[in-house]
Amino acid sequence: MAVVLPSPPATASPGLDGVVTKPDTTTRAPRVKPTKEDLLKTHAVHVQKQANSPENAPRPVKQPNLALAYPASTKSIREVDIIPLSQLEVNSHHRGSGLILKVISPPFLGAGAVSIVEDEFGNVDKISIYNQNDSSILSGVPEGCIIGVKEPYYTINGKNADGSEDYMICVDHPSDVTLIRFTDPIIPEPLRLGPLLKTAEDWKKAGDTAFLEKDFPTAVFCYTEALDCAEDEGFKPSIYTKRAGTSLILGRYDSAKEDALASRTGTSTDWKAYYTAGRACYGLCNYSESKEYLSKALELNPTNPAIKKEYERCLARLHEEETGDYDFEAIYKSLSPKNVHLDLGSFTRNTEVKASPLHGRGLFATKDLAPGDLVFAEKATLMPNQYEPMRASAALYALTVRQLLDNPSLCKSVLQLYPGEMTYERNPLEGTLVDGVPVLDVFVIEGLRNKNCFSVPLSTLEDTRPTAQEGRQAKGLWVHASNLNHACVPNTLRSFLGDMLISRATRHIKAGEEIFQQYVPVKSLPDVRNGVYKDGWGFECSCTLCVAELKQSSEASREKRKDLLAQVEKILNKKTPRAKTIIPDATIRSVDKLMKQLEEAHEPEIYGRLPRLTLIYGSNWLVGAYRGKKNYSKTIRHAVKVLRNFGFEMPQGAESQDKVWDPRQMFFSEEWHSLMTIHVVVALRRLAEAYNGLGKKEMAERSVEAAEFGYMLVTGFKNDLSNLDR
């Protein structure tokens, strides 16, 4: 898909990009409109400039401004009152009305497809159609086609060169426009010039030509016209077969499956229909249904190697769904910047979605899970291969709209996600088919993208390396994982391999217990992090740690911790010492003194088995400072403090270099609320280094084993700790 860029500013292409800089919200008749000749002349200049520009330039995306949201039409073009263009009022959505228009120009392809249109009375205007997939002919409507616009939004699109207002019909919601077949009686007589081709055979040949030229949207259009005017029922199966195959190439799996099944004739050649239907179901990740159709194809053609290959792939996906048996190392090795969409099934059997006592729906364990167990592994519902931070959100929004448009069966799972507070009540008809396409509200889709998407590196393993490129993350939707509620100290940790989300238990989880994740890395101060949750998702966290810090700890204690943390950060300038950095003793003493005061400011009766987040930064710094001086005993002491401050249970005396204990057991406490991050792994490695420095090999080995277990939790699968040094 080419559309991956955010929209340019409105001034970049006035009159063509459809972006309004300072919207005038007054409903009124347009002042002075250009003539048909002037509109066509100006439009032709832009089209010619585009024809002279480099081919395959990416098209920008117009992301919705939620402050200007309006609902999509849920009516059929046959249910609205058709009005002439002359009755359009600026800044009006013309509820209950519609337009039947003929396209009288080639399209200009920017953020939208801009065309000049004419009604049955000879009135002309400009229209910009947004959010259509490249697989649809509506992404650039050819001259001569007839379209219907439901409840059209008429707006000002900036100023023309002479200072006059530039008006435009703006179609944001893709379901608000429909391509009308040439034989449809709804077309007014003045616009009814007759079909371009007369017979079904002519349309089929035109479709075949377009297919050979790889103009697949036009091929689908022509095959559809052929079906509309075919009088011989025996002629239709071959057209259904061709349209099914073309839709499969375009990723329109719902249509491919439907057409494939419609092409059956009751003969042995039906293996082709079942084969195509099976591949379409596979594309939708409906592997059980795919197996059913591929089995029927094999019954009719048991020696066909292509069917056998697809059938074996399908069995592999079903095995993954059933068992959660993945070769994660092999999966990691298969990853590349061009190969992020993995051919895998999703394992979710250990979890179920139920009503949550916390917020709406939640995810709950269906069996007892131990630390390190695979909770679930989910392939992304939607994730574009776009890792540029400035483009990732726009790419996910565009992909979501277009995939739902192309495959309406996805609507039920995606549209049930929470989009945040809307300025209007959501319509229960969202996602249902009207005029052959699902009703899609782009403002709802942008809201649910914003509230439910995950930022994802190419792999979490790569992201832990010092050489990782900071900020290069894609964005994606994982519908099952989106049911997880937030906790600052969750019981799971997520990681990524391409478009695969891996969730592992970080402590014991009982069957029926709700599963939590961190939405974002937690801030040390409870008021700061809850401000993030309030602004981003509209809730205040009620996890064990937040309740303790905000409801049980006194305001005076919170302010004291905040002040002491600020003093520590001021001294350290928010930097952690490097391995060979030698820190002055005076600085270390100052920090150590402040850290003791900060530790004393944590009430034991409140923080007895909870993380102490304000202590983590300073503790980590002291580990680095003493490591640089090769002071192994104090490195051990503060590394143990780091682990304790993350909420891990430490045995009495563990801070002493002479204490013999097993760091591996810290992950298996059933009473402590620990927070697992890569910093825990680093602290365990520092512990191992210090024990080695003191000649305590057994303790060093135990610490390494604990670090390896923690690294498995962080990255999702077993990995060598040396990755942290690369």
Automatic annotation (TrEMBL):
CDD domains: SET_SMYD. TPR repeats lie at residues 271-304. InterPro entries: Gramillin-biosynth_MTr, SET_dom, SET_dom_sf, TPR-like_helical_dom_sf, TPR_2, TPR_rpt. Keywords: Repeat, TPR repeat. SMART domains: SET, TPR. Signal peptide: none annotated. Residues 1-30 are annotated as: Disordered. The keyword Cell inner membrane does not apply. This is SET domain-containing protein. Residues 349-520 form the SET domain. Residues 1-11 have a biased composition (Pro residues).
